[in-house]
Amino acid sequence: MNQPHRIILLAHGSSDQRWCDTFEQLAAPTLESVEGSAIAYMELASPTLEDVVGTGKQNGIEQFTVVPLFLAAGRHLRKDVPGMIADLEARFGVVIRLADPIGKNPRLGYAIRDVVTEELETGTENASG
Amino acid sequence: MNQPHRIILLAHGSSDQRWCDTFEQLAAPTLESVEGSAIAYMELASPTLEDVVGTGKQNGIEQFTVVPLFLAAGRHLRKDVPGMIADLEARFGVVIRLADPIGKNPRLGYAIRDVVTEELETGTENASG
User: Fold this and answer.
1) Cα(B104)–Cα(A25) distance, rounded to whole angstroms?
2) Keyword Iron on this protein (chains A, B) (predicted)?
3) Number of domains chain A contains
4) Cβ separation of A74 and B113 shorter than 8 Å?
């Protein structure tokens, strides 16, 4: 089945497999729900952004949206990732849109509130009783 | 009103005010809903964890839970933060529990899925139509 557009969840990456495992768990609901979505790492882990764009292009996908699994934009998202994207667009002849980091979406703040509320109910029973 | 327990949302911190602004927006729903909750930064921004624990202790709070606003645990959460916490516990005579980083809670993965779904509906109309 053709998928004209691919969502790439971009995580920083780490040489610590436990770090990558957490991101794969974070990505799992998206990967299950959004056809053609994939996870990629900026550095220190694979698949890289280049791997995922290259594979997509081989499968006929020419439009990508990169959704950064970052809570806020620092140097990586303001400078490094746009540079990587410009390079990949030129090399593969594709269009790659860089979305805001997930932390810019208000849904994340609400999820954090719910995590903290749950934390108070379960983790601090002895302290808050 | 006495608040026997304080939740501290711990972010890494940055010298870039835009980065801190994003974390303050992320923290806002929690700060509005959870009495006595506060945000603190590991480094490069204020208030620091020491500031928040010290102020809490002055106000009679001796039990704290630190909820890391990190998607996954790297060196900071495995080593640096536990060291900072042990130091603050000794200096202030308080008990500080370090919760899992928010990214370990499945709610975050669901929020990410919803962000991506929204992204597909709004940001990629031209590409996916």
Assistant:
1) 8
2) no
3) 1
4) no
